[in-house]
Specification:
DNA binding, Arc Repressor Mutant, subunit A, single chain, DNA-binding, homeobox, Homeobox domain-containing protein, mainly alpha
């Protein structure tokens, strides 16, 4: 299949068979259309560039002074078809990208849910062993830094997991390291889990473990 030369796109002919140019363009459009059934999974970016070049060529071709009414009609029809195909391909690329983002988001949420269940199980096992419930005090962070971390945690209590953006902001505001911030948030989530478990349930668990 013959494609339109770049030189012709940049310098459209002022004379010559318009029909030949339109036939070449229409052949290219037919080829692009034939790829549509699988375009969603694998949209070829070269087709978008090709369609853009075709539309540009047709726009400049209308400036020719030796066009018949039939030529103008055919050019207009081909222009509209090329523009429509370009829009459809663009929408398919956007849709494909949106679906990939949604799939990634769902996967991350499932991983968070799995991790939360794991943390709950570990905490429950720890509570069944009294020795593990003894407080251990290490190096304390300055009160103003703790207050800032606590403020962030409460603001994101529905999903208290750090992303790179939030981590960067907290590092700048508290002057703490990544490890210090991550450890504090992790410990705060653990504390929240402990607080959410009723003392009665803890007593039942400990009683059953001793039987």
């Amino acid at each position: 299949m013959n494609k339109i030369a770049i030189s012709d796109l940049l310098n459209p002919p002022t004379a010559g068979p318009v029909t030949s140019n339109l036939d070449s363009i229409n052949n290219q459009l037919v080829t692009i259309c034939s790829k549509f059934p699988t375009a969603k999974e694998n949209v070829d970016g070269s087709y978008q560039i090709q369609l853009h070049n075709i539309v540009s060529f047709l726009s400049t071709l209308t400036q020719s002074t030796n066009l018949t009414s039939k030529d103008c009609s055919n050019i207009q029809l081909t222009y509209e078809l090329s523009s429509m195909l370009g829009k459809v391909l663009k929408d398919m690329v956007l849709l494909n990208g949106t679906e990939e983002v949604e799939k990634k988001k769902v996967k991350e949420e499932e991983e968070l849910e799995t991790n939360s269940k794991y943390v709950f199980n570990v905490i429950t096992q720890d509570m069944m062993i009294p020795e593990k419930n003894k407080p251990h005090r290490g190096h304390r962070l300055p009160k103003e830094k703790v207050n800032r971390l606590e403020h962030w945690y409460l603001a994101h209590i529905q999903k208290p997991y750090l992303d790179s953006k939030n981590l960067k902001v907290l590092m700048e505001e508290t002057k703490l390291s990544k490890v210090q911030i991550k450890n504090w948030i992790s410990n705060r989530r653990r504390k929240e889990k402990l607080l959410s478990i009723s003392p009665d349930i803890v007593e039942i668990i400990n009683t059953q473990s001793c039987q």
